[in-house]
Amino acid sequence: MNVKMVSDLFDPVKTPRIVVKVGSALLVGRDGQPRREWLAKLAAEIAAATERGQQVIVVSSGAIALGAARLRLPKGGRASLSEAQAAAAVGQIALSGLWAELLGGHGLTAAQLLVTLEDLEGRRRYLNASATIGKLLRAGAVPVVNENDSVATHEIRFGDNDRLAARVAQAAKANAVVLLSDIDGLYDRDPRDPEAKMVERVKGVTAKILAMASGDSASGMGSGGMTSKLHAAQIAERAGITLAIINGTHDSPLERASKANLGTLFLPRRRDSARKAWLGGRLRMKGALIVDSGCASALQDGGSLLASGILSVEGGFSRGDAVAVRDEEGRFLAKGLAEYDAAEVSAIAGTRSKQQEKLLGYAPRSAVIHRDHMVLL
């Protein structure tokens, strides 16, 4: 895919499959009611995209906000976890009905998918979700995806639909993600600063880029902010997926961004294999391995993680669990699947293979994390 500008995202040849994420503040007014006129125009844009040959997946927030209004809950249904779950249970019906009605007006079939973090973190369930989305798209339906907030808890939830959109794009084998925001894109400083300039193109989300972001959600209704959008861009860029932040507050926002080439475009850094892209996008790690400088250099050169370079172990993980790899300064280097449980790694940390058999009571494996089961960050 040769995407160089925002308008390329709406070209069915360059971007045959796209994810569009809609946040709560855009979908629901401050009165708790859906912004039907704005949504109707967005639905028309989605219909136009499918008509020109694109496959569109929608990641839609709004269930908690809609449900809270119907249940008359304070603080938009976010006063407690139980209230958010109750609001979501009511709002999910309203949200799916809204999308079904608006897309149905253009002859499109909407399909609801409610997912939790575990559905996209576990490999088998991730593949099942991928297969379902693929089948729906081939059948001509528009998948409408949201986090299943009626059952998700603080420990097992994405927390924002920006990162969910990037993970859904991976599972759907999409070419691009469009995040509809309340500003035109990423600015190099607080956009309220008159000296602020919008960043049109980013090749790699670095520490400098992350420093430009604010985690605030201006509406007070959503759960994301610019920081969550940059985290989504990090997930996408490692999977060969282009991500764009564009202003969704205007009518027909996709057409506006396309015609003006307006927004911030995050270009892919690489295209990992499907398995490594899944691993690199995982949000929950069961533990961490702290490694010395020699081991860190070996990893960057493509080596596996050996016990001799491990300084310490964090967490209580089992063999096959995903763990993070950090250097002595706390910088994240990689994610990988452990070949041992935490207690075994602690026992052999800093040792050579000749010593490990005596410590383990069996012949050691070739690595603590094999390079084939590890992705560099």
Task: Tell me about this structure.
The chain is of the alpha/beta class and 377 residues long. The protein has 14 helices and 13 strands. The strands form two sheets. An eight-stranded mixed sheet has the order 3-4-2-1-5-7-8-6, with helices on both faces. A five-stranded mixed sheet has the order 10-9-11-12-13, sandwiched between helices. Helix 3 packs across helix 4 and helix 6 crosses helix 7. The protein is globular, with a radius of gyration of 22 Å. About 2% of the residues have low confidence.
Quick recap:
This protein is of the alpha/beta class. It contains 14 helices and 13 strands.
Descriptive tags:
globular, Carbamate kinase, Archaeosine Trna-guanine Transglycosylase, Chain: A, domain 4, five-stranded mixed β-sheet, eight-stranded mixed β-sheet, alpha/beta, 377 residues, 14 helices
How many structural domains are formed by the residues?
2
Assign a percent range to the helix content.
25-40%
Assembly annotation: single chain
Low-confidence stretches: 215-223
Task: Please name the CATH topology of the largest domain.
Answer: Carbamate kinase
Mean pLDDT rating: 90
Biggest sheet, open or closed, and with what strands and sense? 8 strands, mixed
Query: How far apart are the termini?
Result: 22 Å
The total strand number stands at 13
Helix and strand pattern: EHHEHHEHHEHEEHHEHEHEHEEEHHE
Q: Major sheet: order of its strands?
A: 3-4-2-1-5-7-8-6
Class by helix and strand content? alpha/beta
The assigned CATH architecture of the largest domain is: 3-Layer(aba) Sandwich
